[in-house]
Specification:
By secondary structure, the protein is of the alpha+beta class. 36% of the residues lie in helices and 29% in strands. The chain is built from eleven helices and 21 strands. Helix 1 links the parallel strand 1 (5-8) and strand 2. Bound molecules: flavin-adenine dinucleotide. Residues 8-14, 31-34, 47, 49-50, 108, 131, 133, 161-163, 167, 185, 187, 266, 285-287, 293, 296-300, 302 line the site of flavin-adenine dinucleotide.
Length: 387
């Protein structure tokens, strides 16, 4: 098989990248190890993805947005940050931005489904499911991907979009800074009698971190971060006990909460690849930058990276240049690093400070929040960043 671009991984990043180049005249293959059935009807995975206005616009341009039922898109108007047991919160308000909301919330499985559908409707893209990559080789002349069934795919450019634990990144000899927080996040949807007023909560309580993402109606996506044994017990807990336990963990601020979905657990591991490109090779999505979910920017960064790299490739095509030239890939790396690195580092610092319950850290946590809430330009800047 002789094509232009091979993408390993048909997650939201790999599929959106393929779609971004679907009308460029390039022939693209996406290699995914899951089955076609799993991709065409993705199961609910617990993740509610907070999307910025910029991401919503990029999804419109890719044709994903209109494939998502408007009723399934929830407005994210405000954000509140709580510390310990205090009722005082640092508030980020949509009124500090020109928009009527900071962003939107959409279930990850709906994003995956929309991305699959747009790819399937693009004749220039071939999707190979249940594909096992046996080896990859890139040199100055091209890329060769060998599949376990013996098939050989030759292209000009290879893209690694195979998650934060990317095997493609490792096979290309690229190291990554990985940080395991030693904690697990449990996500599920819960109904509650007290309205969330479309505000997201990030609650750095002592001994646990709670987040609440407002969905349409009287329901929210609940995210609880705890050590593995505590999450294991929550995952197995009978539903009535679970409802009581979560209502109590939220100090009944939302009334009696009730589980209305399956529960899902994710290890809290962040990744920043040492390099984002190699010879005829680029990393995108979580394979490039695997964010801590506390600032809700993983897929948002994935989309901006896709926009940057795909427009570089389109410009190269328009001027008859190599779509995998070193200089082109380097420009992508520099731009994506500039865009992602500051928030990646800031998120780490916040997660470390607010995950620390020692007396000096408690003092710093409270002081930082109080100072932040008094500085209007800071709040406006963060609200602008969220939006
Ligand atoms: C609890 C939680 C909440 C989140 N909330 C937000 C949020 O609010 N906002 C936000 O922007 N982001 C959020 N994120 C991050 C977001 O979910 C990710 O950034 C996004 O899903 C990454 O997409 P991806 O395509 O890069 O990787 P993935 O979704 O991991 O997809 C990778 C794909 O590659 C395939 N694959 C892996 N290895 C191979 C291989 N060797 N060969 C072939 N295929 C392979 C996999 O099967 C999969 O289909 C959250 C994440 C979590 C865990």
């Amino acid at each position: 098989m002789n094509l232009d671009i091979a993408i390993i991984g048909a997650g939201p990043a790999g599929l959106c990248f393929a779609r971004a180049l679907a009308e460029s005249g390039l022939r693209i293959v996406v290699l995914e190890r899951q089955t076609e059935a799993a991709l065409s009807a993705p199961a609910f995975d617990g993740r509610e993805i907070a999307l910025t206005h910029n991401s919503a616009q990029l999804m419109r341009e890719l044709g994903l947005w209109e494939r998502i039922d408007a009723q399934a898109i929830s407005a994210l108007r405000d954000a509140r940050v709580f510390n310990g047991s205090s009722l005082h919160s640092l508030n980020f308000n949509h009124r500090d931005t020109p928009q009527s909301e900071l962003g939107y919330l959409v279930s990850n499985h709906l994003i995956r489904k929309a991305a699959y559908d747009v790819v399937k409707s693009s004749p220039a893209i071939t999707l190979k499911t249940e594909a096992q990559v046996a080896s990859i080789k890139t040199d100055a002349n091209g890329v060769q991907v060998k599949l376990a069934n013996g098939e050989i795919i030759q292209t000009k450019l290879l893209i690694g979009a195979d998650s934060r634990f990317s095997e493609t990144r490792r096979a290309m000899g690229i190291a990554a800074d990985m940080h395991d927080f030693g904690k697990i996040m449990m996500v599920c949807v819960m109904e509650h009698p007290v309205s969330h007023q479309h505000a997201a909560w990030e609650w750095f309580d002592y001994g646990q971190t709670l987040a609440l993402l407002p969905m349409n109606g009287m329901r929210s996506s609940v995210v609880i971060t705890l050590p593995p044994q505590a999450i294991d017990s929550l995952m197995k807990m009978p539903e009535d006990d679970f409802n009581r336990e979560i209502s109590a963990r939220f100090q009944h601020r939302l009334g009696a909460m009730r589980l209305v979905s399956t529960r899902h657990a994710y290890p809290l591991v962040t990744v920043y690849s040492k390099r984002l490109v190699g010879q005829r090779f680029a990393l995108i999505g979580d394979a490039a930058v695997g964010m801590h979910p506390v600032t809700a920017h993983g897929f948002n960064f994935g989309l901006t990276g896709i926009a940057t790299l795909s427009s570089e490739i389109k410009a190269a095509l328009a001027s008859g240049q190599d779509i995998a030239a070193d200089r082109l890939l380097l420009r992508y790396e520099q731009a994506h690093r500039r865009h992602t690195r500051p928030l990646f580092l800031a998120t780490h610092a916040i997660a470390k400070l607010y995950g620390n319950d020692s007396p000096p850290a408690r003092f710093l946590r409270t002081s930082a929040l109080r100072v932040g809430s008094r500085i209007s330009p800071f709040k406006r800047a963060v609200a602008g960043l969220l939006a």
